[in-house]
Design brief:
- Belongs to the AB hydrolase superfamily. ABHD14 family.
- It is found in: Cytoplasm.
- InterPro entries: AB_hydrolase_1, AB_hydrolase_fold.
- The chain has 202 residues and is an alpha/beta fold.
- It has helices spanning 40-45, 48-54, 77-87, 102-112, 127-134, 155-163, 179-182, 184-199, and strands spanning 5-12, 15-22, 29-32, 58-62, 94-98, 118-122, 141-146, 167-172.
- The protein has an eight-stranded mixed β-sheet, with helices on both faces.
- Helix 3 (77-87) crosses helix 4 (102-112) and helix 5 (127-134) packs parallel to helix 6 (155-163).
- 48% of the residues are buried.
């Protein structure tokens, strides 16, 4: 059965921010960001939101400011995510962050890791800028990369593993930078397993 996926808007930092949501409001939540060539719609199109709702999670995919149907903001990227989590009443979600959205997720993890149950960086940009600040952060983390990523090489994932003691790495073979598009089933399997592990404890 296909779960209902609702398109909604919320005011964040004075801007209209669009998001898609599936699953029950009061269940454990998973928050999706997206890369520069994509939007929240991507997670609907490849079946991720529906799959998470079937697994009884609340899945929320946000159009980051200036992308998809969201307006631009003037505030800081890290504080934007903090407000999203508070306004949408997401209680310690697992955060999924591909590519460009690393500009939002990495400063957020540095300053507010206690607000999350887990972190899934999918070849995000900016890791090398934040390695020193991420040092020792205990947040359960699953770095997912495509073996053929030419934009953010797999070696960058190892830099994350060096500084974050609870980080693991998964490499999806024959997949590129947006590895979830090429190896969707495998990506989903690792994501569900990680969410089950993190959210069963929270």
């Amino acid at each position: 059965m296909t779960a209902a996926i609702n398109s909604k808007f919320v005011k964040i930092q004075g801007a209209n921010i669009h998001y898609l949501e599936s699953g029950e409001q009061n269940t454990k939540s998973v928050l999706f960001l997206h890369g520069a060539s994509f939007s929240s719609q991507t997670w609907k199109d490849i079946g991720t939101l529906n799959l998470l709702a079937e697994k009884e999670y609340r899945a929320v995919a946000v159009d980051v400011p200036g992308y998809g149907n969201s307006e631009r903001i003037s505030g800081s990227p890290g504080e934007f995510l903090l407000e999203v989590i508070e306004v949408l009443n997401l209680n310690k979600p697992v955060l999924i962050s591909p590519s460009m959205s690393g500009n939002y997720s990495l400063p957020f993890v540095v300053n507010h890791s206690e607000k999350l149950s887990g972190f899934v960086p999918v070849a995000p940009v900016g890791i090398m800028m934040f390695t020193q600040q991420l040092q020792g952060i205990q947040l359960p983390t699953l770095a997912i990369w495509g073996s053929n990523d030419t934009i953010v090489p797999v070696a960058i994932a190892d830099e994350l593993l060096k500084v974050m003691p609870n980080a693991d790495k998964i490499v999806l073979e024959n997949a590129g930078h947006a590895c979830y598009m090429r190896a969707t089933d495998e990506f989903h399997q690792h994501l569900i397993n990680f969410c089950d592990r993190c959210l069963s404890k929270s």
